Amino acid sequence: MSNIIFQQIHQQINSADNILIVSHQKPDGDACGSTLSMASYIKSLGKNAVVFNVNPAPAYFDFLPGIENVSNDNNILNNKWDLIIVLDSGDLNHTKVDLDVFDSAPIINMDHHFSNHRFGNINCVDDLASSTCEIVYKFLKSINFNIDKNTATCLLCGILNDTSVFSNGATTIDSMNISSHLVSKGARIHKINDKVVKNKSINGLRLWGEVLSRLKNDDEFKIAHTYIKEEEYQKYQINEEELDGLIDFLNIICDANIYALFRINENHTTVSMRTTRDDIDVSRIAQINGGGGHKKAAGFTIDSALGEDDDLLSFLKKGLK
Q: Which fold is adopted by the domain 3-197?
């Protein structure tokens, strides 16, 4: 990523006083880590920085410094903002924030998704980065910001989240070297591991078992897929976030090229996909269905609640024929 872009971001932040920081709906570790670390830097300049997300962060991120200050109060969006920073979101629609809000101030767009729409006045997009937290780290280093243990913990959380603790295709030499430096700065790697990786209840694992029992593998395209229905969260009395990590877990299957999880909700169905194959691009499948993501990790939303008897594979085969 060019230092010229980092300097443009630095200058834009220095010229603003009230800054809104947003990310995608249903924030994950990278969304939480990148927004909180950016907010920490901006507040160190004596400026007003507010982190907004339409959904509360999953409870297992409650250890992240500053997470208690993230707001989902829509009234905040009516404030006058000098600058809006959008982190870890491939497009503005994915934030679920009223698009009129983004017309009120310049936008800095920082992201690592290949399918990013480049919607900002300044676009800092690096699809070779493991995570948005890696990009934020490089930005902070470029301006000689002293990363403390709290910021280091937030940044490491995002990198570990998006690399599945250095086990998926997003893992690079850069991500490992940066993580090593963050640990040296005091990042709480054991707390991240305990809270983000070891975050399943007994009932959550029982539901994992039920979802895995439905797993099917298509012989022609070698697509392993399964589904979960919204009412099953109530049946097992767990939060939807307890299924986080299941799609990455499917990567251990040796005889499939693509792994897909369908989450069937009342009015829509979300689809997450993964692959470990270098010759397959699941972001192509996602884009054909109106979504996006990376070559090896992508997803999309279907505007209907699919049934278990529907041809789930038809949506996945579009990009492979």
A: inorganic pyrophosphatase (n-terminal core) (3.90.1640)
Please, where in the chain does CATH 3.90.1640.10 lie? 3-197
**Backbone phi, psi, residue 247, to 5°:** -65, -35
CB 97 within 8 A of CB 85: no
Instruction: Give the 3-state secondary structure of residue 97.
Output: coil
Instruction: Give the Cα separation of 44 and 106 in Å (integer).
Output: 21
132-142 helix and 149-162 helix, angle to the nearest 10 degrees: 140
Residue 200 contacts residue 242 (beta carbons within 8 Å): yes
Asked if residue 197 has pLDDT above 90, the reply is: no
> For the chain, where are the alpha helices, taking DSSP H only?
3-14, 29-44, 132-142, 149-162, 173-184, 189-192, 202-213, 231-236, 246-249, 282-288, 313-317
pLDDT(308) > 80: no
CATH number of 202-317: 3.10.310.30
Q: How many CA atoms lie within 13 A of 187 on its CB side?
A: 24
Instruction: Give the distance from CA 111 to its chain's centroid.
Output: 10
Partnered with residue 161 across adjacent β-strands are none
Q: Which residue has the higher pLDDT, 286 or 2?
A: 286
Q: Are the C-beta atoms of residues 95 and 77 closer than 8 Å to each other?
A: no
Q: What is the pLDDT of residue 320?
A: 67
Task: Give the number of other CB atoms < 10 A from CB of residue 6.
Answer: 19
Burial class (CB in 10 A: 0-12, 13-18, 19+), 172: middle
The CA distance from 80 to 86, in Å, is 16
- Main-chain dihedrals φ then ψ at residue 23, nearest 5 degrees: -145, -170
What is the chain's Cα-based Rg?
19
